[in-house]
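Hi Y.,

Following your request, here is the sequence exactly as I used it, all 359 residues.
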Amino acid sequence: MRPLKFLSMQKQPWIGKPLTDILFILLPPFVCLLIVILFPAIFQQSEAVSLAGWVILILLIDVGHVYSTLYRTYFDSHAMKQQKALLFAIPFFSFVLGVLVYSMSSLWFWRLLTYIAVYHFIRQQYGFMRIYSRYEKKDNYSSISDKIIIYTASIYPMLYWHLKGPRNFNWFIDNEFVFIRSEGILTFLTIVYFTIVGLYVLFQIRHIILTKTVNLPKLAIISGTLLSWYFGIVYFNGDMAFTLLNVVSHGIPYMALVWIHGKKSTSVKPAANRLLQLVFSRYGLIFFLLIIFALAFIEESLWDISVWKEHKTIFGTNHITNIQLSDQLLCFIVPLLTVPQLTHYIVDGYIWKKKKSDG
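Below is the corresponding structure, written out as tokens. Let me know if you'd prefer a different format.
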């Protein structure tokens, strides 16, 4: 009988260097959950994100990761040549659609944006799972079971949210989801959820015994998704807990993926412009972060001046008289300010698809 063989760290299906993957893609949900457990008074039941928490989680990570897409698209001359029409059409039609929907109902505008965001977050976890299982010799059962568990890990908490009703947190605004309270359906789905998780664990034990190998990154992504979505939405009912588990587990891995891709691309083929040459140079990480943080700061300052008016001390806009914009003007300003975010959600579905020509 062959002994169980853990693949060496180098032979695991890493995206970049093993340490980079572990620290910035796989560990974030586990570290965040540990922080929530260690500091329950701050995270578990809090109904508001602190000022420092907002700056780190929302401004730098959540908004910042949106702008990291620029390195994979608009800052990349090769990408612009290949998908120029798509990259200009998406923001244009996003703005036009946003104006039309917002003019009819601001609530439905935010509702539509929320559901698109949720879809994007779910698909990112599926995408990472697919990347880390790309070298596996799969049968149909293995492939189907991976898909079922990764979607179960993210979709069940969202169904719980819809069926349980409003929580002490939201994605963007209050009442953004269409709530359908039903304890009966929720109980049934909860049973189904834990049954699927239990069966997947048994299936993986069987798979490991038969193949004598363990795909550590794939299992870490699946486990991290299960933990971050369940504890962030279902188990805990605090804004800080949700924001920490939701934003960090999504934003940091995404920025890491963009960074790894950029480093690999420029090592194989020199960047066509000086910006990417600088950003993906040996010491370019600081420029990578500074650029996206600066863009995030500018966007959020515009949001705060025109719409939210909640963080004047951060943006130094205390001296600016409160600007009261008409509903007609907001019909254009709000959709315009959401263009980077919506473009990120949509374009992300195209830029990571591997072409057949790529092998």
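The mean pLDDT is 89.

Thanks again,
Q.
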